[in-house]
């Protein structure tokens, strides 16, 4: 006696089809499971046996052979418990095999027969819907499966309910997947809570408008983390396609997808002790890391230089490509990682270098070593490097210098993003070098400004193009068709660590130590015309 049912495995973001075959034959009572099962799948024999018996059925006598095809695809987790149980009952003639084979089934069984949620349901339902198959899922994952438009979903709480449904005795309702109604605007911390950090708020606005990475350098308590937490509130809501992609990544993670996060920009803030694998993803059976969980959102790395060097260097390629490929001996998995990096760090080990006081006792060599933990190649990939200065207590007490409301800034961000998408189809941060050459054309004055800055600051080719992309975003925020020298000068002024590492260390150190503004330092060094003052 032979029966076949269908399910799906999990391989990164993919959900490859798995065919379950059960053959009952005469012989000594044994149960053999083949098809490259991992330990959790092998243990399903005991879960399935107990669940079938507790559902009121006798365990089939004789030899039971279960095959999970394709044979070269590793099978893991408890997702195959439900299809194995139904396929076994179909092979024994207890339920109609054709009715079961019409569905794709996923779910882990308890010993009592209750259905438990499994990760990766969203990817599986997407692929099943593309092939025109309805699905049977645990009731706990119904909300997740219903995010797939056009899906036909049957949800059950236990094995008995599924058996009653396929027998036609107690049919379960069929839910239809549909796009969720757009929720009210998500509540994020508001920029108006920020006092006296006009330049940092300007940097956040530029970063949000062009999806640029931003690094904030300043002493402890100056508001770096507070500013980063307000970046998601400046970004437009996720489109339905972006929301579904972000939800599929969260579903593939062992922590699972939370329905309340639908349409919200992800904001991930891992601790600085996180390993390279935790950031980029991996494991024997690869799962997405923090950079993929932040896809279409913000990845905030506080205390940037405290992260392990190998973890930071692992960010270099995803920042360029928007994806990460995790390679193992037996398999290769690719995860999307189009995230917006926000990072914060202190200027020195004690944190008080350049805060306008005499509290810092770190020597110059110690400071250089501390900042040197951030490698040049990674620094090149950080579009905006802004110095954060402490706010005077009197200003905090008065609440003076408060920033604009996030909603007002977000309106300008949306307009700038729409202009970019109309002009080039992608945001400025995603422009390749050919796109920069086509859409970031400079006039003579702006070209001279950028050439002086590139020579004086010794910008690499990558940093040069990133300055151009930032200048293009500044022009878009002002609704200008061309890029002015003023926009170029402001873009250059947001290279704070490049200013520190230029050929004249004494001048750069005075800029940081004395609290001199980037605008004044650039003017004094002859890198911008005095009339081209940036918006503060």
Word description of this protein:
- It is built from 25 helices and 19 strands.
- The chain has 536 residues and is an alpha/beta fold.
- It folds into three domains: 2-176, Ribosomal Protein S5, domain 2 (2-Layer Sandwich); 191-401, Rossmann fold; 431-536.
- The longest helix is centred in the last third of the chain and has 19 residues, at 406-424.
- Residues 502-518 and 525-536 have low confidence and may be disordered.
List the helices and strands and how they pair.
Layout lengths: L1 E7 L8 E9 L4 E5 L4 H4 L1 H11 L8 E7 L11 H11 L5 H5 L2 E2 L2 E2 L5 E2 L4 H10 L4 E4 L3 H4 L6 E5 L2 H9 L6 E3 L21 H13 L3 E4 L6 H5 L11 H13 L14 E2 L7 H5 E2 L4 E2 L1 H4 L4 E4 L7 H5 L2 H6 L1 E5 L4 E5 L3 E6 L18 H8 L4 H5 L3 E4 L5 H6 L7 H19 L8 H7 L4 H14 L3 H17 L7 H9 L2 H5 L4 H9 L4 H7 L12
Parallel strand pairs: 3-4, 5-8, 8-9, 11-18, 11-19, 12-15, 15-18
Antiparallel strand pairs: 1-2, 2-4, 6-7, 9-10, 13-14, 16-17
Helix pairs in contact: 2-3, 8-18, 8-21, 20-22, 21-22
The CATH topology annotation of the largest domain reads as Rossmann fold
The shape is elongated
CATH level-four homologous superfamily name of the largest domain: P-loop containing nucleotide triphosphate hydrolases
Largest sheet properties: 5 strands, parallel
**Uncertain residue segments:** 502-518, 525-536
CATH-level-2 architecture of the largest domain:
3-Layer(aba) Sandwich
* CATH class (first level) name of the largest domain: Alpha Beta
Report the end-to-end length measured between terminal Cα atoms: 78 Å
